[in-house]
Every structure is written in C-alpha cells, then in structure tokens.
Amino acid sequence: MCGIVAAYGVIDPEKCERMLARIHHRGPDDTGRVQLENAWLGHQRLSIMDVSGGKQPIADDTDSAYVVGNGEIYNHEDIRDVLSEVRFATDSDTESAFRLVLRDGAAALHEVRGMFALAMAHTDGRGAVARDPIGIKPLYWARLDGVTIFASELRAFDVEDQPFVEAFPPGHVWTPDTTGDLTAEGALVRFADAVPVEVRPVRNAPDKQWTEEDLGQIRDVLSDSIRRHMMSDVPVGVFLSGGLDSAIVAAVAAKVADEKGERLPTFAVGTEGSADLLAARAVAEFLGTDHHEIVPTPDDLEEALDEAVTVIEHFDPALVRSAVPNLLLAREAVKHVKVVLTGEGADELFAGYEYVHVDEFSTPEALQAELVRSIESLHELNLQRCDRTTMNYGLEARVPFLDATVMRELLTLPAEWKLKIHDRVEKQLLREAFDGTVPYDIIWRGKEQFGDGSGAKDVLSALVEKEKAKEGAQDAEPPTVEHGWALRSDEEIAYYRTWHRSFSGVRPDRTLGAFATA
C-alpha cells in the first residue's frame, strides 16, 4: 500500500528526502516523515485502510515511538482485540502491528498475518525493521559507515550506495545497536519462516486418493483467505489472466462483492485474439463481472519494454515477458480500483509448473522439498514482478494463495496427491475442488506462462532479435556480470543491458533471483 524509507545512525535528511521522492509512485496520496536524533522515517502513502485518518508516520501516546509501514495486516482486528487496553489513534492496520510490538517486543511479529515491511524508531535510540515471512512486500538495505538505510525499491538508493545494497531477508527483524556505537551493524533475527517448519515433512496417503472432505477443506481455506484479502476501504478488483488460479480468485471475490450489492471489477490483457484474453472474457461473462480489457498492439508492447525492465528492477526473461503486459494492465486498472487480487502462489502450492513433473521430483519427498524451495524464492522472482508492476501506478496487488493459513493447510496435504500420476493433470486437486465455480473449459485448461498466453512473448522475442541484428550484437562480446552471475540467453543479455543503465552498481547476487531457465 505504500513505500518506505528509513535510516538509523548518522542521518543525512536531504539524502533521505531524495530517496523518498524516488518512490513517490508507490504512494501518491500523501507523504510523511519524522526525524529523531538517530533515526529518520519516511512514508509514501497509498490510502486503502482508514483513508482519512491513517496518515503515517504513526506515533505512540507520548510521541516517543513512531512507525511507517508498507503492506496490509489482515489480522489487525484480531490484534486489536488482544490489545483491548490500548487506545488506538487510528483505524490503520499498521498501527495494530506497531502497538503489538511496543507491548510484547519484536518477537510478537510472529503473530502478525499479512504482507508488510515495517520500520519503527524510538527517541531513545531503539528501533526495529521487519519484513513479512514470504517477502510479499519488498525491502532493501545498505549498511554504510555510520548509518543503515532501508527502502522499498532499488531505485530509491543513491548511485554511490548501490554496491552495498542487499535484499532484506524475509521473516527477519533488525534492531539497531543501542550502545552508542553508530558504526555497529545491529542485530538481525529471524522471527518466522516462509513455510512453517511443521508442514515440511511429507504426510503419507495410504489410500492414494483424496475425498470430498479434502476438497471441501481446500475450498474453505482458500475462500476464507480471498474474503480476508478483500479487506479495504476502497474498491477491490481482480486481475484475470485467463488461467485457473485467477479464475478461482475471481469466482470467490465476485460472490463476496455480490453479497455487498456490488459488481466485481476484473481486468485482462492480451493481444487481439490471444488465448489469455479470450479465456478471461469467458470467465468474466460466466461470473457477470464488470470486465475491462486491454488489447495492446506490438507497438504498445515495444514501448513498454524498456520501462518494464527498469520498473521490475530485474532482467530475468520470464519476469520481463510477463511484466510488459502487466504494466499495461495496471495502468488501466488503477483508473477503477486501488487494490487487485491475483493468483500468485497457486503453482507453488499445487505443483503447477511442468518442470516439477520430471524424474527428479517424482517422489513425494522430493516434490515437497521443491515446493517449499520455490515458495522461499518467490520474493525475488514472481512477487517482485507482481509488486513493482502494480505499485508503479499506485495500485496494490494482493496474493490470497500465499496467506500463512492457506500454506499451512495446503502444504500438509500429501505431496503424492500433487504428482501427475494415475492419469492426473497438473493441479488436479485444485481443479476438482472448484469444479463448477468457473466454466468447465477454464477449470481444465492447460497451463500457459502469462507472457505466452497474452501474446507478449512472440512480440518481445522478435524485438530482441531486431535489436540484436541492428546493433551487430551477434559479433560482440556479451556483457560481463561479476560475482558469478552468468547471462544465459540473447534475450537475457538484451534485458540486462537495459537494467544495467539504471542499476550499474547493484550486485545481482545480493538482490535478485533467477528462474532455472532463461
């Protein structure tokens, strides 16, 4: 919902202001900051919860502690019930997490459910910075001489600081050194795992088949999560990719909207006649949503390409291909809503990717381990693309499949049920659980990568070849990426060159991840 900048130690307010200005797009509704003796907190606000009263930084009762936050705390009402003795100053979900930490310490972050990056500071020098366990919301930091600085995006940092920037690890909290040594690095402690430890062991399935009760459990836990992710004081929509996952999200969200007497806005993008566009249209007609289509021309996609690489701060081809149409989609959606739900995470929970259905992952134990690994990597891949393409236009994307309760329930299902054996297709469990809620052809439609189904892949591949021929790149040495990072294809080389113009000092091995293939 926002962008944050925080600094602890020897503060340069002008530098902090520059950094905050560079992420104005993340929160165009308001700007706030507070400077203490050894800390500076800045906030760009996208007003979603407590629109009129939730301005940040938020202070405690004595103006001795402050917080800025990015994201949403979905159990903030439950936290308020626990803190019944506290008199809250706002209805903001960020204040709920803030007050909990003030009362119980940083360890209480384990009880916070949502997507968040939080920075707190006290007048006595104490403070805390934390990121949600999966890393749905971005956070980067640089530990420099005398100061530790944090920001929501790579492009917030000054060029001279880029070599020192790292991705702040999900599920961790950092506290500054309070001994008076401003060159000390402080303490970094894990407060939660991306995937709860207790769900990692493989559960046996002696009957080798699920029951209607199992399917009902899947429906219930996902439907409950989608309902909670529609928490908002502003309109909420759904990105419809034309695939199974977003169709399920839209089906539940449309029901919730109907219960409120509203019509759910949905948004789809694709070149004329593309598979994704046609499939999304069928889902929207079936559900009766207020549907919006973006039909880019090849020129539109070409125009958005360089911007997409800079916006997502990445050069992985799979991410770039999907980012280009997603940027166009977000630019249109923000004219109608401030929040959208997406289907991110379903493939990791239900083994939807084709690469996991090979001999290497043919046992339940191997498949479970790979699903856990892929979820732990999402913050530097799909979630990075998802966050940046939407927040570039002040639009918040939410991912109900990655709710902590959903993961705890669905990863305790036998991994054997997710293998493509006994004539099953990928994600058979999920398909059966929601059979009848969306059109039959969509429930049983095969998976396509978003950039492929939207028609963007072919257009972008042709652009890469055109640029390669124009510049004579086939005869030139490919650019060198230091620190052991190898470029894997002509397409990745092309995107890296664009990325390098904005982030020449950033070390990819400290800030980015990569898919298995380019």
UniProtKB/TrEMBL annotation:
It catalyses: L-aspartate + L-glutamine + ATP + H2O = L-asparagine + L-glutamate + AMP + diphosphate + H(+). This is asparagine synthase (glutamine-hydrolyzing). It comes from the Bacteria. Belongs to the asparagine synthetase family. It comes from Actinomycetospora rhizophila. InterPro entries: Asn_synth_AEB, Asn_synthase, Asn_Synthetase, AsnB_N, GATase_2_dom, Ntn_hydrolases_N, Rossmann-like_a/b/a_fold. Pfam families: Asn_synthase, GATase_7. Gene3D superfamilies: Glutamine Phosphoribosylpyrophosphate, subunit 1, domain 1 (3.60.20.10), HUPs (3.40.50.620). Signal peptide: none annotated. GO terms for molecular function: asparagine synthase (glutamine-hydrolyzing) activity. Its EC number is 6.3.5.4. The gene is asnB. Transmembrane segments: none annotated. Pathway: Amino-acid biosynthesis. The keyword Lipoprotein does not apply. Keywords: Amino-acid biosynthesis, Asparagine biosynthesis, ATP-binding, Glutamine amidotransferase, Ligase, Nucleotide-binding. Residues 2-179 form the Glutamine amidotransferase type-2 domain.
